[in-house]
């Protein structure tokens, strides 16, 4: 068995008794990928100093080169004829027959156990691999030519992240301290603040700490009676999980909807689920046939006026680590209609509710696609009446056929459509008579563009939604997703002008998708100012929340 994604050296050997033989040497994962060799007099005592990677002016040796250089020590009496580096990728998309499983937790554990034995679907080799070694690999893995990838650069490129530990600040982005926006100066926004106004955070420019403090505060607040939370990818160390466990120990009713089927996070989520169950948290493993991808936290609090509810809705995971590099929006609100919708959705995820219509939220798999398409069609109608139709979407992927066709219809009707799609985009912009009113850009910068924003001008009565859903069949049909409206006009205007419009105007880190599917890098034209949207976000001092009193609905 060759381990999935392991780095290996295949060695062609000449054996005096048995002729040509082949041996595989696995590069160990429990040693650093790179060896840092100093160019100074300390080299002789370098190992005794702890072999730190944070040394200036060093040569960097990949460990596989060191292994290949000393292969003769592994095979005494045999001649090393040739060597090549390779690795394989196995099919890790193992299906779970949820409806036939009596225990989803055990089924996912079984999936994790079976994953290392999946079929080989890709072979990566060095570009100049010797013919005999190449033939041996193809013959033994029994793979087709389209599954073979020749690499001119290093294999296992993700290991290059280890190089960030080198002490070379001149090669790194300048560190920054995320801001704490004014409504959150004392940590999370106070419940009294949320009763008066909504609050938006934009990570990583805004600190993720207020989100953590929101849950920690709820966990210790004697007036809080219940907390309900979705957990998709929370990381190896999770202050969110710690806060939920504390809340349960403090006597709160705590429900955690843990998505066990979050790909490659299954083992971690199993560990968290079992830890939560051990302290008495009501853990729910989702719905049969669906992934729970919505990012929601509901806090129920007993107050003088009666029971009040507070909600946090995010476009990204409750993971403090990724919140440092993923650009995501988060909304705090006590809006009664939104909180009632979130309550109904938790009831659907944790019980037998079959609710399909919601007051304000668009919810997959029932209302997201119809809601988006209905608003696109409404924009077409308004454009025919007033000629000012405008749609702007920012998302990770655009794949869904029905949504794409609706955008084509809007373009053919004359509606101006501006899309920013970081990853896969199956829509073709600029096709004469079909999509010539559509532009598509993508930003590749310091931070991963992960937020989803859907904006409709609607004849001046504009609407905006944020949430977890991309326009893909899996998000619209096979996941529980939500898009939440930004109902506060001042906040909506701030997100549109200070975030969405700035990203759409980027001419420093953005690329434009052409009709043929290729991308061209954007740059400022003659006399045009440079717009680096991520840098503008970093330099902004006052956040995105308008002053209190100017944010009436």
What can you see in these coordinates?
- The chain has 553 residues and is α/β, with parallel strands linked by helices.
- The protein folds into three domains: 8-171, Polyphosphate kinase middle domain (polyphosphate kinase like, 2-Layer Sandwich); 182-358, Endonuclease Chain A (Endonuclease, Chain A, 2-Layer Sandwich), CATH 3.30.870; 363-539, 2-Layer Sandwich (Endonuclease, Chain A).
- 26% of the residues lie in helices and 26% in strands.
- The chain has 13 helices and 25 strands.
- Strands 12, 16, 17, 18, 19, 21, 22, 23, 24 and 25 form a ten-stranded mixed β-sheet that branches. Strands 8, 9, 10, 11, 13, 14, 15 and 20 form an eight-stranded mixed β-sheet that branches.
- Helix 6 links the parallel strand 9 (224-231) and strand 10.
- The chain is globular and about 90 Å long.
- The N and C termini lie far apart (62 Å).
Write the layout of secondary structure elements.
Layout: E1 8-15, E2 19-26, E3 34-38, E4 58-62, H1 63-69, E5 79-90, H2 104-114, E6 120-126, H3 131-141, E7 148-151, H4 191-196, E8 199-203, H5 209-220, E9 224-231, H6 239-249, E10 253-258, H7 266-278, E11 282-284, E12 291-292, E13 295-303, E14 306-314, E15 326-333, H8 336-350, E16 362-364, H9 368-386, E17 390-395, H10 401-412, E18 416-421, E19 438-443, E20 448-449, E21 453-456, E22 463-467, H11 473-477, E23 479-485, H12 489-504, E24 510-513, E25 519-521, H13 533-539
Parallel strand pairs: 6-7, 9-10, 10-11, 12-23, 15-20, 17-18, 18-19
Antiparallel strand pairs: 1-2, 1-5, 3-4, 5-6, 8-15, 9-13, 13-14, 14-15, 16-23, 17-21, 19-24, 21-22, 22-23, 24-25
Helix pairs in contact: 5-6, 9-10, 12-13
